Amino acid sequence: MTVYLPDGKALEVPEGATARDVAQRIGPGLAKAAVGALVDGELYDLFKPLPPGARVRILTEKDPEFQTLFRHTLAHVLAQAVREYFREKGYDPDSVKLGVGPVIEKGFYYDIDAPEPLSDEDLPAIEEKMREILRRDLPLRRFVLPREEALARYRGKDPYKTELILEIPEGEEISFYQQGDESFGFTDLCRGPHVPSTGRIPPHFKLTHVAGAYWRGDERRPMLQRVYGVAFRTAEELKEYLWQLEEAKKRDHRRLGRELELFLIDPMVGKGLVLWLPKGNVVREELMAFMREEQVRRGYQLVTTPHIGSLELYKTSGHYPYYAESQFPPISFKERGEEEAYLLKPMNCPHHIRIYAYRKRSYRELPLRLAEFGTVYRYEKAGELLGLTRVRGFTQDDAHIFCTPEQVKGEFLGVLDLVLKVFATLGLKDYRARIGVRDPKSEKYVGDEAKWALAERQIEEAAAEAGLRYTVEEGDAAFYGPKLDFVVKDALGREWQLGTIQVDYNLPERFGLTYVGPDGEEHRPVMLHRAPFGSLERFIGILIEHFAGDFPLWLAPVQAVVVPVSEKQADYAQEVAHRLKEAGLRAEADLRNERMQAKVRDAEVQKIPYVLVIGEKEKAEGTVSVRRRHRGNLGGMPLPAFLEGALKEYRERLLESPF
RNA sequence: GCCGGUGUAGCUCAGCGGUAGAGCAACCGCCUCGUAAGCGGUAGGCCGCCGGUUCAAAUCCGGCCACCGGCUCCA
């Protein structure tokens, strides 16, 4: 058969030839350096037979793909090491059963059913075993078995591997990778690809932690021990990663929330319930004011609705009992002999729908946009709660747009524009858009096929028109309609959904909403749910990490601190602070009995944007010496000049100082 | 909810069978100071909670609670 090299050159090789054979034909030097190959753009190792006519590019340790190869092999090395670890503890190696061991973003993991639980304390010993396996330089080989033989290998020994084999589609190869021999090595069901031998793996890896993980992510199935590791090509990269991890921890909003006194989650109040401290509340209020302005400008009408609603309301909407699992249980008065029951509201939409429905609507009123900062309550599982990003009570910058089917796309575009404005104002660039469509295999969706298809198409068109980079993910739709979510990562790399836009053909149906069209007939409106921030709590959590606590002036809880050089300027410092406050800035004078250096430092640590230093010179001249956070002394200027610049920065919500 | 880990002063942490410690913060005093920590002093603890083992428990064991890392789910 013929294969083609990157330069277009054709190479004649025997049937079943591998990338190793091709490398050898090109030259012995390359054959030695080769670790894998890109075959028609797909990552191959040196073992897997090439398809005829393949375009082959040999990879060496210099290629970035090398990382994927050795991370994968490291997962196998980890499994082998764990097995040897338990054998030395006197267990039968077969008592260590294996789930899956894939490559992940910075490394790898392996899911292991171990005879006794692993803890972080076991990791150094396992890691040492792994290094030993690298030093043994065990060569890998790949082989294929017929289904029956493959099953026979694991029958009665490893239910996980057996299950995996049974799920490999008929006609697909069932391949194994073996490192070392059967007695002094390790063999695993695996589709590959892998490095040629364990000695080729750079020793720059580290086992990071153990965590429980349900087999196949299903909580009804057994829990395995997942051992996570990170791995890089060079010691520098590993060091850099570990350093970044430390830095990321400093950005953690839970830590900054405490250090900057932004919010509190008090177990006595209840887990997952946020207490906003005065400083954090400033951020909240500023964000709400910003959103209110933008919404009013865009034709939204503001409404206010209660925190609870009758159970009947949610039965009509279908939220109850559909989402009963994640709701606080109904508030009932049965013991008082009253039948009525209420639900802490898990969503605002039913309330808004009743506002729409309270009188007859004309097509001339549409699109009708009802907005509210609505606080909702959801009973998230205890283990799910996390700082501000996963809570049990949170405020959505919610709105519901009622429109005609023809208006859907235009409204969708309008919301996209608003979301992008929010992101641009805050300098959030690292986000992705995710369009959630139905999982064709699932039955959980309401509404008819044709409407779903229409909505899904409209969303994609609008996203494309807005120039968004997006991915389409099956099964990510809400039960009542498809949606577009904006997703960002927190400091530790976990992904969170922020803004969301969802099309809903279901609720208007359930509540029997109508409008009178130009034809005088009644028609059914379409509804859009949308929340640009998503939840204020989560959004602020992400913002804290995004800015590492260095909020732009308009969000900073304290915008300026006036620091007198000595007590002699205390009166002038107070006067300056007073004038800043008069002008609408959040400013204070720091009159503590401390040296000014200490006050400057405290202001930096508190991430206050401006420090105005006042000495004899400034007092005499009516000026202030301006110091910008992280930048240092900007020099003196007349107080009005500072006020003008700072107010511009504040009112225009600038990200950078104009000075 | 499940698996693993961790709970000591407001914060960060040491102590790990024998009378509870440090730094920072707080408070008081001295210093009156020019852009990231001046000096001295004082006060502060049901060592998460409940039970057990022991002559003796912050320390060992068990249960509970909270938090952390994951898994799962997510309107």
UniProtKB/TrEMBL annotation:
GO molecular function annotation: threonine-tRNA ligase activity
Protein's cellular compartments: Cytoplasm
Matching InterPro entries: aa-tRNA-synt_IIb, aa-tRNA-synth_II, aa-tRNA-synth_II/BPL/LPL, Anticodon-bd, Anticodon-bd_dom_sf, Beta-grasp_dom_sf, TGS, TGS-like
UniProt KW Zinc-finger keyword: no
EC number: 6.1.1.3
Enzymatic reactions: tRNA(Thr) + L-threonine + ATP = L-threonyl-tRNA(Thr) + AMP + diphosphate + H(+)
Cofactor note: Binds 1 zinc ion per subunit.
Residues bound to Zn(2+): C349, H400, H529
Coiled coil: none
Domain Aminoacyl-transfer RNA synthetases class-II family profile as annotated: residue spans: 283-552
TGS domain segment(s): 1-60
Record's protein name: Threonine--tRNA ligase
Family, per entry: Belongs to the class-II aminoacyl-tRNA synthetase family.
Assembly and interaction partners: Homodimer.
Key words, A-Z: Aminoacyl-tRNA synthetase, ATP-binding, Cytoplasm, Ligase, Metal-binding, Nucleotide-binding, Protein biosynthesis, RNA-binding, tRNA-binding, Zinc
Keyword Protein biosynthesis: yes
Matching CDD domains: TGS_ThrRS, ThrRS_anticodon, ThrRS_core
One Pfam entry name: TGS
Cofactors, names only: Zn(2+)
Gene source species: Thermus composti
